[in-house]
Amino acid sequence: MPDAIISYGWTAKSRDPKHFLTEKASKDPAPLTVEGIRLPDSPLAKRVLEYAEQELNAGTFNHSMRVFYYGKAIQIQQFPKWEFTDETYLLACLLHDIGTTDKNIEATRMSFEFYGGLLARNLLYKDYQAPIEQAESIAECIMRHQDIANSGSITTLGLIIQLATIFDNMGGHAELVHQGTIEDVTKHFPRNKWSSCFAATIRKENALKPWAHTTALGEVSFPEGVLNNTLMAPYD
Question: Is the overall model pTM greater than 0.70, yes or no?
Answer without folding.
Answer: yes
